[in-house]
Amino acid sequence: xxxKEKSWVLYDxxxxxxxxxxxxxxxxxxxxxxxxxxxSEVNYLAYWGYTASIVTIIVALIGPxxxxxxxxSRFKLxxxxxxxxxxxxxxLVLAVPMNWILFLVFFAIAKxxxxxxxxxxxxxxxxxxxxxxxxxxxxxxxxWGYIGSCIPFLISLIIVLFYDxxxxxxxxxxxxxxxxxxxxWFCLTIPLLKNYKQNKCIGNVKPNIKKCFSxxxxxxxDICKTPHVLLFLIAFFFYIDGVYTIIDMATAYGTxxxxxxxxxxxxxxxxxIVAFPFAILFGxxxxxxxxxxxxxxxxxxxxxxxVFAVFLSNQIEFWILAVLVGMFQGGVQALSRSYFVKICxxxxxxxxxxxxxxxxxxxxxxxxxxxxxxxxxxxxxxGGIIVLPIMFAIGLIIFLISIKFHKKYLKKQN
Length: 414
Known about the structure:
By secondary structure, the protein is mainly α. The chain has one domain: Up-down Bundle (Growth Hormone, Chain: A).
């Protein structure tokens, strides 16, 4: 990889540590805070899901404007840095002992910064490599993000699990773990800040809010005029719903089922390890097979995973789920990103990826909300998961239709 490509991949290694913390230690820590305040396990899972939904609403509202602004020369990097700082500082504040309500508030702030940074990070892909390498580099980002994030996570996990042998309290152990993750995240952002240069943009002009809204409006019109892009985004909305919901709520779901927390953490660590070679494998396969075909395989696999999760009831089944998710998580995320890079205008990646991010975030709102709602309605943790395979099935059908329209579009272009 080139210096720019390595710098871009390193940010995935940095922010993935925060992602892994969100998926593992944070929900368990919050469960302890909620339990000490008398919150039931059903409501604990619901409150965690509702918070995730609020975060996605905020990012969905601010993302398009910031994305449109970033399409102008020299604006992408400073906006990206601002979102990273919000995320890192929010994460550091969580190291301060607090009650469960304040924890959710600052968790939301940190995750808003993290989620918003990904809009600009994803759109940087077209500037740091050429179109023939986007599938490979996108997959490398997820792959090294999975395995690299295990380093600070293992250190944090050892501190949290063996806090008594280190002669510190559980609260102190959590604070140290959170600080380690925040520092890791920021330090691995520095190479990208130093080496990234925005090459593809609308122009070297000073934009204003009116121009940003106009740019965003034109982007939406352009998407509506290209059915294959519009249908892909709708399909992405549905299938990524299940992917993000599984990532956000896997540990919370297992904890609510009463599964051993230590084994849950180890199982999710296995997910990261399994995801590393499979993400690279999907990048390699993209050279020999159509990206759309590989995406179809990943969505079908996730449909099966969603059905399996509905009937999950013990530790062994959770381990199987962790391995299956690891096999296809990197592929579906990396190839969705690189596939979209290929079908959107290169000079408007910020605007287009902000719309894609709305679809992703909107899906997460729907997914986490419906899981939380159905969990409370059925008074069963398994009852809430039934929405996931339904979303995957809808996404699969619409993606198949989008492929047909894309073929027609390519024939017209030729």
